[in-house]
Amino acid sequence: MEKLPIFLSVVTVVRNDRDQVREIAAGLCEALGRLVSDYEVVIIDNASQDGSLEAYRDLVSGSGLPNLQVYALTKEVDLDTAYSVGLENALGDFIAFIDPMTDDVGFLPSMLEEAVGGADVVFAANDQKPEQGFLYRCVSRSFNWLYARLNDVDLERDAPQFRVLSRRVANFILQHPLPSITFRHLPATGGFSRANLRYSAPPKGARSKRLMESVDRGVRLLVTTTRAPMRLVTWLSFFGAMANVVYSIYVLGIALFKEDVAPGWVTLSLQQSGMFLLVCVVLLVLGEYILHMANLTSEGPRYHVGQEFTSTTMTRREKLNVEEARKSPYLVPPA
Q1: Domain residue limits at 281
Q2: For the chain, what is the mean pLDDT?
Q3: Domain match, 139 and 50 both
Q4: What is the pLDDT of residues 152-188, one digit of tens each?
Q5: One domain, residues 209 and 97
Q6: Which end of the chain is more exposed for a tag (fewer CB within 10 A), N or C?
Q7: Residues 182, 38: one domain?
Q8: What is the pLDDT of residue 119?
């Protein structure tokens, strides 16, 4: 197979993999060396505590592997944040994000074929998933269902972690104020041309996923990418305000048209409905203000040119602001 004439960056995240990091890096370098003309492997160490730094020093030494970039984080972060670190430091024309334990590097040529053919984003989903706990699977499916209903994107099916991004998509994500959040969903929702591929390969292993960390990550993604939760708060506040107005009218009607009303009931009811009305109005105003501020802080660039097309023939280029010197009887030839 002829090498693709591109510069490819491959980003992978590891943690406490001192005994396997050389095998991982060597496998990537060997596969990429046969696939593309130029490449780099960007390793993000997610705050390992097993002495992996010594292994990295050996990997990048003169007797180590070529084209490696290692970035060791000082504290553990979620997976999307770690990948965004690699995105910020990758230099390739195309950037692939791979988990060597669950993703098949051998499927990368098919993904690059789509990317070189014009797809800005190429996703690849493995039909064989690593085993996770029952509770984790239930929570994950519930979150994917909810997110698909709110944003019309099934993250597990339409935006898996195994992906190849073009440089224009990488630049677009990095222009956003929260690249660690938008990395997960923006390639699937930003209007770029994309391809979704599927393959079947047994995973080499399974990284344990912590339920509470995944829940926190999901809630953060849900709140920052859709206004539905906060919009629900404002609608409930509006409904509460209207319900208290109706109740106040009902209390006044009872006071006007009924004679056997308990003493103090009308005053107490109006006082309570008035206080609840005030609380609901305050929550409504605060909710709308928070929505506005969230839009300002999470808003990306005003626009982004995804693709540009130019005619082969441009007539304006034929009308340059240059005039030919014409012979004139008033011009005196040089001596």
Answers
A1: 228-298
A2: 79
A3: yes
A4: 777 777 778 899 999 999 998 888 877 877 887 777 7
A5: yes
A6: C
A7: yes
A8: 92
